[in-house]
Structure formats: structure tokens, C-alpha cells
Amino acid sequence: MAKVNQFTPADHEIVTSAVSLAEKATDGEIVTIVTEESDHYGDIAWAISGLLALTALLVVSLFSEIYLTMINWLAGGWSGMTALPYWALFAFTTLKFFGARLVLMWKPLLFLLIPNPIKATRVRKRATSLFRVSTDYRTVGRTGILLYLSMREHRAEIVADKAIAEKVEPAIWGDAMIAMIDLVRIGAPGEGMAEAVRQMGVVLSEHFPKTDQNPNELPDRLIEL
Known about the structure:
Blueprint: H1 9-22, E1 29-35, H2 42-62, H3 64-74, H4 86-103, H5 107-113, H6 116-134, E2 144-150, E3 155-160, H7 162-167, H8 174-185, H9 189-207, E4 223-224
Parallel strand pairs: 1-2, 1-4
Antiparallel strand pairs: 2-3
């Protein structure tokens, strides 16, 4: 299966250069991470399969005469069945369940069926987890900030360290997020992240202007997972 992540070496260079340039005017430390997907959603695939199987069982129970007619036709009129046996219902439901799970291994279909709130929650959870590993408590002034992009979910998150969160409301990052998503949507993910970084740098320079006492503590390069 082809990867959704479309970042090229040129994209990496564009984003890395944007981070380096933005940090020249601020003590803020910007970390950029891109990943193909934030979760495998295996639990959701099983849940959808179970729901489809139960729905199929309900349909068979309500319209059993139709299925009995089909069985009788396949048997050449010699099935002798007047009601669907329990083993037939069990076999039908089992086939539906595992058949649906097999089909849902095709990621484009699975992600189409996953409710947006679930995707948003999982992306946020992964972004927060990566922030704790890569950024949290890793700068002297608690001025680290993570820009996270999850390609398959078509979602992004910005997670800021304590000092930044105390001064900058989350809504302030909205323009940067919109600019990035707009460019990612048209097939320019590198330019999208670079533009978001540029706008983040403007905000950070207003609240945390560059000083001589703050070294470059976090990597400028784009991290691809």
C-alpha cells in the first residue's frame, strides 16, 4: 500500500530552513513532526465489523422468508427448510463479521468510516505524547512548541510548553493551522508546514524575542515518523 506521507527531501529542507529562520527572532524552540497516521484504529475496525455483523443478523431475522426462498432455490426446491436454523444464522453472522474486518484492512475505507471526533481525539493524544517525549521540559525557559501533522487523518496539532501556553491562547495558532492545511490539501505539505512555522515564529517573536542567553536546544530538522 502506498504511503500517504508525501514529504520529499526538498520538503524536509524547506521545513528545516523555515524553523531555523523563525528561531532567529525568538527564544521559542519549534519542533516539527509529520507522520502517516496517528493510530492504527484496530479497535474501531473490530467495532465496525461487529456492528455490521449484528445489523446483518437483524436483517436476516426480519426478512427470513427471503433467505429461505434463496436457499430453497439453490437446493433445487429440495431444502425442506421452514425456518432458518441456528447454525445458519451463526455461520452467516460470523462470515459477515470476519468478512467486514478483512475489507476494513484497506485503510482508505476504514478512515472514511471512522467518525471525525475519534480521529481528532487520537491525533491530539499522539501529538501530546510526542510533545512530552521530544519537547516538554527540554528547554531552559520552557519555550518549546510542537507542530504535528498527521497525513491520513488530514489533521494537525500545535502543542506548546508551559511558558508559551501561559502567554498565548490556543486560538492564536488558528491562522497558522489553516494556512498549513490549505497547502497540504493541494499537495504542498512542505510549503504548508513551512508557512505554519513562519506564522508561529511571528507570534513567538512578539512574546519571546531572541536573547543571547538562550541556545538552540531542540533540532530544527523535520522529524518524519
